Amino acid sequence: MLQIIISLILGPIMAALLFGYMKYRFPKGYFGLLFRSYFWGLFSTIIFAIVFYISYQQGYIELKNLRRIIFFSFFIIAFGQELGKFIVLRYLMLPTKVFRNPSDGITYSLMISFGAVTATNVGIILFFPNTDYSILISNVLVGMVYAVVMGFFVGMGKIRNNRMIDSLSGLFGAIFFHGVYEFIIQTDDKLLIWPFLIGSGIITFLLIVKSIQISDEL
């Protein structure tokens, strides 16, 4: 029961902590868009719900072999979830004036991710009650990796002329990391989980540091 509660409230708590930090860091800043990005993240899961429902009807979530697991991990789960978040970040957040650089991209992407994982966890608990709830909790935390990767590259598109390339780099980068993690979960390969967490953690840290440097230079 405790794991169910944590999996439901962790996303909103992380969003509240991020919002509070930004309010503290920039007391005179405008945060209306940041607040709305969380709720747009909730709605971004509609695309994933459609992809998952079609895949379910066609029997693609019956993981009979390695090819099915790869397809399930990278297309149904990773692509289905990251596409919705990407559309919100790229077409609703990026064009605004308050979105200026990779740091902004990471911030908005994180907030969208927290909203999306909140809605996803609710749906999984309702329709798949036998799910391992510890995985739902980890999805909130590991999801920050995908959010940072996507947010950094989409944000780079704001300050460079190759916006399409940067945006697609963010999308497919997030899909790659998400797909690898889902594949590890589905295959229950404990030997790969720590290298993935350490490697993705280092990359996430470096992208955050680089985004701060770019923000300071601008």
Separation of termini? 48 Å
Q: State the low-pLDDT regions, or none.
A: none
Give the fraction of residues assigned to helices.
Answer: over 70%
- The tally of beta strands, per DSSP, is 0
Helix and strand content put the structural class at mainly alpha
Q: What value does the Rg take, in angstroms?
A: 17 Å
Q: How would a textbook summarize the main sheet?
A: none
Order of helices and strands: HHHHHHH
Count up the helices: 7
Query: What is the strand content?
Result: under 5%
Q: Could you say how many structural domains there are in total?
A: 1
Average pLDDT, all residues: 93
Shape: globular
Descriptive report:
Helix content is 84%, strand content 0%. The chain is mainly α and 218 residues long. It has one domain. Helix 2 packs antiparallel against helix 3, helix 2 crosses helix 4 and helix 3 (66-93) packs across helix 4 (102-127). The model has no long low-confidence stretch (mean pLDDT 93).
